Amino acid sequence: MARELLGKYLVRRSRGREIAFMITETEAYHGRGDKASHAHRGETARNFVMFGPAGRWYVYFTYGMHWMLNVSSGKDGYPSAVLIRALHGVNGPARLTKKLKIDKKLNNKTANSKIGLWIEDRGVRVAKKDIARAPRVGISYAGEWAKKPYRFFLRKNAKK
DNA sequence: GCAGTGATCATA
DNA sequence: ATGATCACTGCC
Predict the structure, then answer these.
(1) CA geometry: angle at A146 spanning A143 and A152, to 5°?
(2) Closest protein residue to B10 using CA and C1' atoms?
(3) Which nucleotide is closest, CA of A69 to its C1'?
(4) β partners of residue A17
(5) Considering only CA atoms, which residue is closest to the C1' of nucleotide B6?
(6) Is the pTM value of this prediction over 0.90?
(7) Per-residue model confidence (pLDDT) at position A157
(8) For nucleic chain B, which protein residues have CB less than 7 Å from any of its atoms?
């Protein structure tokens, strides 16, 4: 799913205005066994969305100032999510939430236009060769899991 | 390189 | 109740 989201558009409608940016970078957090995942230590008040059905926003606050945007994935009961790390022209997971005015209010909401934050396929074709993989960012504490190539991003030469 | 900033969670 | 930690950013 982290791969599939590349090239799709993240659309935000807030106070009557609508903006959309193509998703260019994602990371996968995959199951309880994933030491880098919030779900690794079980379900808590913060991470419960990861344990629910796919397609809901998992929004959390970190470092005292940043909101992170994820979308839940996997079957109901299987804790997993995709972190949206960058949009075309908006690099960085905390920057994009600031730009799109995303915060706690969207947590656990199903991604759709009613709630004002959703994903659209606008027909951008992403070839497999345009997708690069790398280890995830900021999780060096995760031992072997820190090395897994669960970060996906569009190569610079990919068509925009 | 590292300060900023506060919610969250484990420990007690 | 307390203290360490943190899926980051921006300025040095």
Answers:
(1) 165
(2) A41
(3) C7
(4) A14
(5) A64
(6) yes
(7) 64
(8) A 41-42, 44-47, 60-66
Contacts of A57 (CB under 8 A, 6+ apart): A49, A69, A70, A71, A72, A102, A106, A107, A108, A109, A110, A111, A117
pLDDT in tens, A4-57: 999 999 999 999 999 999 999 999 999 999 999 999 999 999 999 999 999 999
Residue type, A127: A
Query: Which two three-digit tokens encode residue A95?
Result: 């920057």
Render pLDDT for A72-125 as a digit per residue (tens, 0 to 9). Answer: 999 999 999 999 999 999 999 999 999 999 999 999 999 999 999 999 999 999
**Lookup: nucleotide whose C1' is closest to A94 CA:** C8
Check residue A143 and give left, alpha or beta (phi > 0: left; psi -120 to 50: alpha). Answer: left
Q: Fill in the amino acid letter for A17.
A: R
Burial group, residue A60, by CB count within 10 angstroms (0-12, 13-18, 19+): middle
What is the Cα–Cα distance from A74 to A155, expressed in whole angstroms? 26
Identify which of A17, A33, A15 has the alpha carbon closest to the alpha carbon of residue A78.
Answer: A33
Q: How far is the CA of A63 from the C1' of C12 (A)?
A: 20
